[in-house]
Write a structure and sequence with these properties.
Blueprint lengths: L22 H7 L2 H7 L10 H10 L7 E6 L4 E5 H17 L7 E5 L4 H12 L3 E5 L5 H10 L4 E5 H8 L11 E5 L12 E2 H7 L14 E6 L9 E5 L3 H10 L8 E4 L6 H13 L3 E5 L5 H10 L4 E4 L1 H10 L1 H5 L8 E4 L6 H10 L5 E4 L9 E2 L10 E5 L5 E6 L5 E3 L7 E6 L8 E2 L3 H5 L2 E2 L2 E10 L5 E6 L4 E3 L2 E3 L1 H9 L4 E11 L3 E10 L7 H15 L7 E4 L13 H9 L14
Parallel strand pairs: 1-11, 3-4, 3-5, 5-6, 6-7, 10-11, 10-12, 12-13, 13-14, 27-28
Antiparallel strand pairs: 1-2, 8-9, 9-20, 14-15, 15-16, 16-23, 17-18, 17-19, 19-22, 21-22, 22-23, 24-25, 26-27
The chain binds adenosine-5'-triphosphate (ATP) and magnesium ion (MG).
Length: 587
């Protein structure tokens, strides 16, 4: 179906006055110092994320407002800002009583249960650095990360400990304490561990936040491992300024919002935007403890009256795959803004939002390394489906070219492909890769942080993702971004997901090969393959269209939902698969 290249916004599309109404004026007037002045801060120029997110509200009018609403298997539990303050004080006291100090590292391995959120924020209060792990990781990736991070404490559940950690405990000499959450609230009694609930009950609910400065470490987040071995990105308390500004401008949070971020805190989106940004803005966050289920998700959007929803392309594609009928069983009158991050958002998905939810999906771009949203479509922006939007206030983004001497310079001409770079110095920029100084140094060239993603900027200042530098296909003198090919395939009604790779070829360098999974009701067959090849050729032209298409029941993805093209390629070529620690369904 041919659709307009731009979705124009009118006043009727905005149910609340947008926080970013005048893009140019807000950018021009913006300063990070002014944002820092909006934060409460601690005496002596100190700053602590837990103070900004929790304490500040717990002593004010938001004290009895729900900070989180946990949707469990059987029940719903609200935790107010006041309660969150007391619980996190208790947890900080638990750490203190165990002799865990500032700068030491605590690892977290659990589902999205209240204890996870209390642990993260309580650790901040104690100056302890948190490293959340995805709960579906197997023993091997857990051990690797705890070893690399020299973890002093692990907070996990009894079940996860017995299944995954007990057998590797002997390999983790730095781990002094393991705190367990019992199943269904029962106390635990596992040798070599402590029962968290018992310690919490004994601890005081008053605590003086350990004085942390803006440059003190807060979080250690491992990247998704889409392109190779995950890197441990180190973040600081001062990052909270970015979370405040992006919560305001990119997510457009308003005090009365009911906000749902579907990302797991095992990934940076789940902490930056599942914990920190919404609390900063005093909104109520929905936390769904269960895994993805299309029916359940539509019900949550409806019943919880979600107004701002932050999700990911992989989830949207799964909803698309499940069919629009399920969506129609519900209605979403409260929903006013939907945003997505993590992977390129195919235009098809943007339009799907408009048709099924009544709102287009707003793509935004960032990385574990950037700590927060950098480029975004915000409520007041016209959307160009397929574009990531424009750099937020305070963010200078450019397409850069590398010179022969290693220096980089911005490319001024519109629509030129090149590496996406950001002017260094925004508050949530990573401060290092753990134990990998050299890799960290390579991220910078002069004043520019190099993202490793290829993109282009159009004449209106919108950025368009082309592909990761590693994934770009060189075919007969053309540079082909997989995203373009995947988006064209997604426009075919049978296609649920597409992943595109370059397959070495003697004649042309690489030929484009696509892997697709199909929507419900479609069968993989030769006729459909021919039809898809023809469809792609018509959309893209013969030079860019795939020469080969294979059907797969589903594509290999990271646990954070990204298509692992490197794995499609390795499998196609019979090469070693490399680090698969983050592969969904893997060990
Ligand atoms: P690794 O660095 O370990 O290979 P990763 O880069 O996937 O993993 P993340 O930091 O979770 O780890 O993901 C950031 C990357 O995700 C970006 O560099 C980009 O390639 C992709 N990405 C995120 N948002 C978008 C978006 N809106 N459009 C296109 N790509 C995106
Ligand atoms: Mg990366």
């Amino acid at each position: 179906m041919d659709r307009p290249a731009i979705i124009r916004k009118t006043a009727a599309d905005l149910r609340l006055p947008p926080n970013l109404a005048d893009y140019a004026a807000t950018r021009a007037a913006f300063s990070w110092d002014a944002v820092r002045a909006e934060l409460a801060g601690l005496p002596g120029g100190r700053l602590n994320i837990a103070h900004e997110t929790v304490e500040r509200h717990a002593v004010g009018p938001l004290r009895d407002k729900a900070a989180f609403r946990f949707l469990g298997a059987h029940d719903t539990r609200d935790i107010t800002y006041g309660e969150l303050s007391r619980l996190t004080n208790r947890f900080a006291n638990v750490l203190k009583s165990l002799g865990v100090g500032k700068g030491e590292r605590l690892f977290l391995l659990s589902g999205r249960i209240p204890e996870l959120y209390v642990t993260v924020l309580g650790s901040f209060k104690n100056g302890t650095v948190v490293s959340p792990l995805f709960s579906a990781f197997g023993p091997e990736p857990i051990a690797t990360r705890i070893k690399l991070g020299e973890g002093a404490v692990l907070v996990t559940t009894e079940l996860l400990y017995e299944r995954k950690v007990a057998k590797i405990r002997g390999e983790l000499p730095t781990l002094r304490h393991v705190l367990l959450v019992g199943e269904e609230g029962r106390a635990t009694n596992v040798p070599g561990t402590l029962d968290l609930a018992t310690l919490m009950a004994q601890a005081s609910d008053e605590f003086d936040i350990v004085p942390t400065g803006p440059e003190d470490l807060s979080l250690l987040h491992f990247t998704s491992g889409t392109t190779g071995t995950p890197k441990g990105a180190m973040h600081v308390h001062g990052a909270v300024a970015t979370h405040w500004a992006t919560g305001k401008y990119a997510l457009d949070l308003h005090a009365e919002d009911i906000y749902w971020c579907t990302a797991d805190p095992g990934w940076v989106t789940g902490t930056s935007y599942g914990i920190i940004a919404p609390l900063l803005h005093g909104v109520t966050s929905i936390v769904d403890e269960a895994d993805f289920d299309a029916e359940r998700w539509y019900r949550i959007l409806d019943e919880q009256k979600v107004s701002v929803w932050y999700t990911a392309p992989t989830a949207i594609r799964m909803l698309m795959k499940a069919g629009a009928e399920i969506a129609k069983k519900h209605s979403y009158p409260a929903l006013r803004f939907v945003a997505s991050v993590g992977e390129p958002l195919n235009p098809e998905a943007v339009w799907w939002g408009k048709e099924v939810l009544g709102l287009p999906i707003h793509d935004n771009w960032w990385q574990t390394e950037t700590g927060g949203i950098m480029i975004a479509n915000t409520p007041a922006f016209d959307i160009k489906p397929g574009s990531m939007g424009r750099p937020l206030p305070g963010i200078e983004a450019a397409i850069v070219k590398k010179e022969s001497d290693g220096k980089v310079s911005p490319v001024d001409t519109a629509d030129t492909e090149g590496e996406l770079a950001l002017k260094r110095g925004w508050p949530s920029m990573l401060r290092g890769y753990l134990h990998n100084e050299e890799r960290y140094r390579k991220c910078f060239a002069g004043e520019w942080y190099l993202t490793g993603d290829l993109a282009k900027r159009d004449a209106d200042g919108y950025f368009w993702f082309v592909g990761r530098a590693d994934d770009v296909i060189k075919s007969a003198g053309h540079l082909i971004g997989p995203f373009e090919v995947e988006s064209a395939l997604m426009e075919h009604p049978a296609v649920a997901e597409a992943g595109v790779i370059g397959k070495p070829d003697e004649m042309v360098g690489e030929v484009v090969k696509a892997f697709v999974s199909l929507k419900k009701g479609f069968e993989a067959c030769e006729a459909l393959r021919m039809e898809l090849l023809g469809h792609a050729r018509k959309k893209l032209g013969a030079a860019v269209a795939p020469k080969e298409i294979d059907f797969l029941p589903s594509l290999p993805r990271t646990r954070s939902g990204k298509i692992m093209r490197r794995l499609l390629k390795a499998r196609e070529l019979g090469l070693p698969e490399g680090d698969t620690s983050t592969l969904e369904g893997g060990a």
